[in-house]
Amino acid sequence: MVGSIVWVTVGLLAGPVIASTTSRAAHGEPLFAGRWWLPKVGEGAAVSTAVTTTTLALVDCRFDGATVGPVWSWFAVTGILLTQIDLVCHRLPRFVVGAMFAGGLLLAGNDALLRDDPRTLLEALSAAAIVFTSALLFALIVAPRVGAGDVLLVGTTSFYLGLNGWSAVALGLVLSLVLAAAAAALLVLVRRVGPGDPIALGPAIIGGALLVAAFP
């Protein structure tokens, strides 16, 4: 109960900040300059707060006090920010992706210490390294239009998924591809984009990972 209250409070505080940060990204402004932690009122704050609070509450219910819960809560907060920015302006800021990875590494490291299970952490790091390298080579050789942010995000989400084993990594990647393909087909169908236009891949990558975490 206490954990749920904590994460709902985090959602209420983080939602407006996520909304205002997304607005700055859309206007080409520095994301974390000045008093970035002071949100602007009326810039999608209500929707962002509702999404963030609901997601964190669901994550808390899913892990029910498990020590790995904060790891996925951090993934959810940073993932919502990246999703909104990518949807608005097709950007995945490296600083935010780096914060997603660094925060997850610290929290997962703490979880490994509490459970005396370093092997899981090492497997997750191995998954991140292998998938990142593979995605980088794919982007350089096969699909040069894939952005650096997408490559970094795939590697980072593979770290989180790697905490649940290699099968979770594989399933998360497959689900991400399915979600991306479905979104692209829908956008073409409703004529929001053309067949060759770029689409935001970040939401699909993050969504695939969250689905695997929600239904292991």
Automatic annotation (TrEMBL):
Alphabetically ordered keywords of this record: Membrane, Methyltransferase, Transferase, Transmembrane, Transmembrane helix
Transmembrane domains' residue ranges: 92-109, 121-143, 163-190, 197-215
MF GO annotations: methyltransferase activity
Key word Methyltransferase present: yes
GO biological process terms held by the UniProt record: methylation
Domain of life: Bacteria
Record has Oxidoreductase as a keyword: no
This protein's name: Leader peptidase (Prepilin peptidase)/N-methyltransferase
